């Protein structure tokens, strides 16, 4: 066997393989960047305002505009400021990154956990945050299930059980691009960085047994500030001011 020739063939084969893999990686990165940073859905005035104010949008702009309706929800276990409940047997906190495993591990200990979604952007050291889902899909941002963890183990939780009732007729929600345009042109300060955009439910909280929430786009900035744009009326709400 001509070992020199065989060696050259192997070298050329590896070079060709690296070229193919490199091209595929470049295409994947290009496709991801295109999907995440596509501003063509934004109005021209909005794009100009972005440039003038130095605003960056690092999150993908959703294109879906489903038909949703307002909801009324009430708490089933009284006061929303409940004391944490300690788990009889701690659960591995790594399971938070696998929804199915997490639900299987905690479904016998935490009511309705199978109808919640993990919110990594609101979670912090020692606490994982999940929100209940309306119609099994849309997070209700007003309500949180908190999982407490220590030494890589979930040790307890705090939960407010709710009952949700649909209210009014379904309407097509405002597009994320229009909601974002309103924020960029009128509300966001200069050099803001938008890092997350998500559709769910949100409403101002009143001293009442029942609360009302409407479809809303949630925008989280890099500095931690949160803005909500009501999906039907287009009103803008900042939790810090509730205006």
How do the strands and helices of this protein lay out in sequence?
Elements: H1 3-36, H2 44-53, E1 56-57, E2 67-75, E3 85-92, H3 99-106, E4 116-118, E5 127-134, E6 138-139, E7 145-150, E8 153-158, E9 162-172, H4 176-186, E10 193-202, E11 210-221, E12 226-230, E13 236-237
Parallel strand pairs: 1-10
Antiparallel strand pairs: 2-9, 2-11, 3-8, 4-5, 5-6, 5-7, 7-8, 10-11, 11-12, 12-13
Keywords: Membrane, Transmembrane, Transmembrane helix
Pfam families: YycI
Protein name: Regulatory protein YycI of two-component signal transduction system YycFG
Describe the structure concisely.
By secondary structure, this protein is of the alpha+beta class.
| Main pleated sheet | 7 strands, mixed
> In CATH's first tier, which class of the largest domain applies?
Mainly Beta
Q: Shape, please?
A: globular
Q: Averaging pLDDT over every residue, what do you get?
A: 85
Number of helices: 4
C-alpha termini separation:
81 Å
Could you say which structural class the secondary elements and strand pairing correspond to? Answer: alpha+beta
Low-pLDDT segments, ≥5 res: 16-23, 25-36
Pfam families: YycI
InterPro entries: YycI-like
Protein name: Regulatory protein YycI of two-component signal transduction system YycFG
Keywords: Membrane, Transmembrane, Transmembrane helix
């Amino acid at each position: 066997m001509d070992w020199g020739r065989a060696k050259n063939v192997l070298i050329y084969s590896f070079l060709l393989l690296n070229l193919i893999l490199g091209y595929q990686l470049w295409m994947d990165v290009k496709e991801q960047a295109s999907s995440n940073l596509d501003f063509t859905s934004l109005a021209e005035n909005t794009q100009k305002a972005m440039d003038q104010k130095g605003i960056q949008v690092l999150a993908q702009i959703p294109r879906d505009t489903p038909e949703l309706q307002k909801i009324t929800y009430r708490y089933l276990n009284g006061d929303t400021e409940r004391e944490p409940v300690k788990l009889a047997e701690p659960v591995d906190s790594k399971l938070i990154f696998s929804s199915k495993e997490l639900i299987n591990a905690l479904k016998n200990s935490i009511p309705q956990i199978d109808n919640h979604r993990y919110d990594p952007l609101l979670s912090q050291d020692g606490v994982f945050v999940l929100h209940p889902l309306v119609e099994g899909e849309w997070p209700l941002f007003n309500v949180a299930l908190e999982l407490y963890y220590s030494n890589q183990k979930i040790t307890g939780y705090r939960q407010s059980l709710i009952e949700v009732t649909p209210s009014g007729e379904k309407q097509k929600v405002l597009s994320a691009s229009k909601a974002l345009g309103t924020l960029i042109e009128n509300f966001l300060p200069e050099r803001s960085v938008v890092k997350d955009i998500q559709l769910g439910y949100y409403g101002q909280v009143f001293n009442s047994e029942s609360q009302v929430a409407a479809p809303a786009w949630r925008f989280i900035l890099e500095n931690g500030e949160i803005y909500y744009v009501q999906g039907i009326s287009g009103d803008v709400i900042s939790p810090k001011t509730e205006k």
